[in-house]
Amino acid sequence: MASTSFDSSPVTGIPFGDARIALAAKYACKGPRYTSYPTAPQFQADFPFYKFQNWLETNTDKQRDPLSLYVHLPFCNDICYYCACNKIVTREKGVARQYLDRLGLEIAQQARKLGDKRPVTQMHWGGGTPTYLDNAEITELMHMLASHFKLLDNGYREYSIEIDPRTVDLSTIALLKGVGFNRISLGIQDFDPLVQQATNRIQPYRAVAPLVESIRAHGFRSLSFDLIYGLPHQDMHTMTETLRKVIALRPDRIACYNYAHLPERFSSQRAIERLTLPSASEKLILAQHIAESLLDAGYQHIGMDHYVLPHDELAVAQNEGRLQRNFQGYSLHMADDLLGLGVSAISQIGDYYLQNETDLGKYYQRIDKGEQPLARGFEMSQSDKLRRHIIMNLISGLRLDIAECNDQFGIDFSGKFAREIQSLRPMENDGLVEIDARQIQITPTGRQFLRNICMPFDAYLAKQSGEQPPPRYSATV
Amino acid sequence: MTIHRARAESPVNVKPCTHDYQVNCGNCRLSSICLPLALEREDIEQLDDIIQRSRPMQKNQHLYREGDHFQSVFAVRSGAMKAYKTTDDGREQVTGFYFPGEILGMDGISKNTHASSAKTLETAAVCEIPFSSLEKLSTLMPSLQRHFFQLMSREITEDQQLITLLSKNSADERVASLMLSISARNARRKLSATHFRLPMSRVDIGNYLGLTVETVSRVFSRMQKLSLLRVDNKEIEILDPTALQDMANLGS
Fold it and tell me: How high is the ipTM of this complex?
């Protein structure tokens, strides 16, 4: 897809090279990934949870509305050095049993509060490593969920699970299909042996390929790969080879994440030798290489960091401007409310964000006392909802329809956001975004700078203007 | 008492079963639940309360129907059952056949209601384990729940593997795979792997495999001609298991 002239490609934007690297250097800063707005650091530890309880008890009209479930399974057998997830690395016997017992209590507790009549249109098991559970435990957990929530076995539903290829065999794939999953996400990250060794995640292609074949044979509706760029020892050569293998296996979706090296915050990342990491400009070249290779192979770039085959419903949805995003990634039919279950899980219900205890011991204590294990919360104001609308539209659909926004929120966008639009002007001059009276449109080049483009609309970043955002955010580019 | 003593290999402590059924508990897939219960609990009366045995069921009688609340799993003790779903346009889609010692009903796990209906193909009897009893007992025997979900996961996995196996491939491969599956299941309960009677009709076989009755009959004729099988109405004799394996293409 690399064009020979220096003109912008209609698909990938300004070709990689000095101009693009200069852009990346110019906009390199730290910022949120916007899986939610407001973002998790804004959630309050002293949140008055009774407000949420009261709201729940007075808003019983949602008892039949679709519901999305997220189940967090925190355990891993081994540490992957790049990981920044909430996880517990252990091989101690019985930890899964203790966790399932508490999860069962939380499931029963939440089903009583939210009602068991709401059709679960989306479910995702994430981690940690969901397949840390053995086949019997997977079956038991699904039984717990099915006996407390209204799970569906036909019609439109997205039931997905993250798989660590090292933890499953072909029988697990059959079981996952049998207990109702219709989507699988495989944590591939990179196929290069040296990269795998340097990140402590060794899973050769020859072990992954039979899993992929089995997933297809069992008729899963969608197979997704996670890839990471910016890992130690990655270069154009290793990435070319990894992409060749990925394309040969042809997953329906590819989520391609930018590795954020924050060793001061995530201790496992200290095992990664800084000198082996690609530089910022090398990372940019890798990102560009990924984009070009996957587009060449027939994938469509959607949202910030996803690639999908054209038949995939997410591709269709983005073309029609109906793509949505939440903590679980992109989706087509997003339920209004997301219930997170398990340690550290985040719920988004009505105008509230709620996060469970992130420490396993505390989570157990709260459950054992019969309490809701909530640690932090947030109630969205009207202004938060407006800004969320803007940011989520830009992140998912790459476009904000200004008239629609004015209608929905009863505002005059150009007046209310004059300062924000002003902050976007330099990005407009750099060809990242196009702004007129009708819309804000992200350009193909701008896609890589989506986080930068959204940041002016983030009221909580603006509040701390003058100082650096706290270091908990990763690099935007 | 539900434990049917096997003539030669029965565990010492198991009380003999007074009923004469086609399956003995040692060969039943539910035995990983029932046998530890029987061995550890003195009180046989109470055990009888947990594992419920149905009266003999007549042919074409329903054990459960699609949409029924999922509260028990069942083991076939004698006879044979078939599971089926009703399609949107009202047609029957056969989803499985179950023989003595096999477990059915697990398809309710992911929705808490049965995803299919089950009815008898001939006179049959079943054992039933309700979840509520299991939960009560799990406090007394913590390993029981673990055994139970282990069993469930194995059954679900095997069902799914068979469905996937049969959903691809040619008509020959499908029919051959089904015959081999029945043969292996017979062998598992210590019956002849090469000589058995099919309890289901050609229509049910065709429906299950996604083939017309005519195709099923044609494949059987071809198998006879190739001397892989002898078919006499419902009686099947496997003459050449290796060639049947080749036809099923299971190696690839």
Answer: 0.85
